[in-house]
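Readers outside the structure-tokenisation community will struggle with the description of the input data as it stands. Showing the layout once, in full, would remove most of the difficulty. For illustration, here is how one protein appears when written out as sequence plus structure tokens:
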Amino acid sequence: MDLIEVAKKSLGDILNAMGFAYDVDVTEEDGVVCLQIASEDARFLIGEDGDRLDDLQYLVNRMIQNVLPDAPRVKVDCDHYREKSEERLLGKARSLAERVLESGEEQKMPPLNAYHRRLVHNALKEIEGVVTVSEDGDDRYKRITIRRV
């Protein structure tokens, strides 16, 4: 079995056990496989601020690792929630970077997980005149500070 087959089966097993009606489309972008769920019950699958979607993604990836130990992580999204959320996050980050360039005062992002921090760092390295720094520590959620160079 390949990664996509295992991923779809794993997600299907979970959603079927929970009694959801759904369709799943698989996309691959920049080497990342994304399982995109379409369901009339999307709000229940997404949860508050995507917390249930995070849980689903975690479970699917654990199930994949049991079958394919060296498999890369798979992204699970529902009704393009993550896609829209990431666009909003990067829009906010760019807006804060512009504010830093105008005012010279550093700005802080809200606490973010490692994946979202990576997105912000990569997006803002394209903007000349600003630099991003993550705070030190072992916390799962950390703030990014945006400064003028």
Notes: The longest helix spans residues 81-103.
